[in-house]
Amino acid sequence: MTVLDLFAGPGGWSHALSVLGVRDIGLEWDEWACKTRVRAGQLTLRTDVALYPVWPWVGRTRGLIASPPCQAWSMAGKRLGLADQPLVHQAVADLAAGRDTRAKLLTACRDERSLLAAEPMRYLHALNTVGEPEWVAMEEVPDVLPLWRQYAAILRRWGFSVWTGILNAADYGVPQTRRRAILIASRVRTAQPPEPTHAQRAEPESLFGPGRARWVSMAEALGWGATDRPVPTVCAGGGPGGGPEPFPSGSRKTLSDARDRGTWTPRPGTTAGLQWALRSNNQAKATVRPLTEPAGTLFFGHRANECVWIAQPDQGPPEGEPGGPAVPEAIRITAREAGVLQTFPADYPWAGNKGQQFSQIGNAVPPLLAGHLLAPHLRVPLDPDAFTLAA
């Protein structure tokens, strides 16, 4: 019996399963995501999920995982999937009844990727003929929740217990406030969301046990601002008590090289009067989060590598006034850092150029969130410390 992972991407679900002691077989079309998976030692079939036959999996599938491509639905794209929703709902209903109308419906879709969200039902219908799978876990952007509710109604008729809803990855120790629509279904246990382990504010211990820990910050996940080793002061202008100036005022040299060599560690609220933050894109209303908070949702793709570290005045005279901080230029986030903020290991073997790596990372399921969702199905305890966060 195997775990089948549809639209497996670079291995968010697969890495979680490996930490839990289980291997899956991932079906994925993207060349570079497949190469990343192979480097990570994950079983992979490079194929189009919409064309691959279902019969090889009938009689041998314990669990089904699906994270269909989100570009058609995501706020980062044109969201044509919302206009195609009635067609996707029709495809799901037809497939659940054993009718394959995908070719006809696809001609009416405004985004050809929209219909991929119906593909898991093709597999589920075939597997249900032999009482499989035992459990199902699916994930997508929040706007897909109505579709997951349609899946839930069908699965309940087939004997599953099902839960659907929106979960925030930060509530499970992921250093990112990533909200996702989740479907959990099981034939052998009551489906319910995992108990949150973290909260926006730390909770005190009570009669019912220890309270939830505070959300994991970017600084904590990346190991920035640690006190167990010498940390140079981050500044670009110095000042009283500001320490040595790593780069003279007005220098055109960025801080990227120093960061990559491990000689520079950003610290929020330095004596130089700067606070480092992550800006999610270059739009006027972009999410900006200081290092003391989790990141906003990381998304890449057509605006690849758009997330940047920026320095903002934190105290003292404003920027540009006498004695105020000289703010260095924005620094692009690295794929390594973005991966860590998704709870991939710092040494995860991303394949491809920068754009291809960022596309994989932005579309991936955070492995730590996946671990929380999968552990109950596998009947194994989850050790969050097994998911390496430190960069």
CATH class category of the largest domain:
Alpha Beta
Task: Give start-end ranges of low-pLDDT stretches.
Answer: 226-265, 267-271
The count of helical stretches stands at 12
Can you say what the CATH homologous superfamily of the largest domain is? Vaccinia Virus protein VP39
Return Rg in Å. 23 Å
What does this protein look like?
The chain has 391 residues and is of the alpha/beta class. The chain folds into 2 domains: 2-202 and 363-386, Vaccinia Virus protein VP39 (Rossmann fold); 217-293 and 299-341, no CATH class. The chain has 12 helices and 13 strands. It has helices at residues 12-19, 31-39, 80-83, 85-96, 102-106, 119-128, 145-157, 218-222, 256-260, 335-341, 354-363, 367-378, and strands at residues 2-6, 24-28, 43-46, 61-66, 135-140, 161-168, 179-186, 198-199, 213-214, 274-279, 288-290, 308-313, 331-332. A 7-stranded mixed beta sheet has the order 3-2-1-4-5-7-6, sandwiched between helices. The chain has a 4-stranded antiparallel beta sheet with strand order 11-10-12-13, with no helix packed on it. Strand 2 (24-28), helix 2 (31-39) and strand 3 (43-46) form a beta-alpha-beta unit. Helix 1 (12-19) crosses helix 12 (367-378) and helix 4 runs parallel beside helix 7 (145-157). The radius of gyration is 23 Å and the shape is globular. The model is unreliable at 226-265 and 267-271 (pLDDT under 50).
Fold blueprint:
Layout: E1 2-6, H1 12-19, E2 24-28, H2 31-39, E3 43-46, E4 61-66, H3 80-83, H4 85-96, H5 102-106, H6 119-128, E5 135-140, H7 145-157, E6 161-168, E7 179-186, E8 198-199, E9 213-214, H8 218-222, H9 256-260, E10 274-279, E11 288-290, E12 308-313, E13 331-332, H10 335-341, H11 354-363, H12 367-378
Parallel strand pairs: 1-2, 1-4, 2-3, 4-5, 8-9
Antiparallel strand pairs: 5-7, 6-7, 10-11, 10-12, 12-13
Helix pairs in contact: 1-12, 4-7
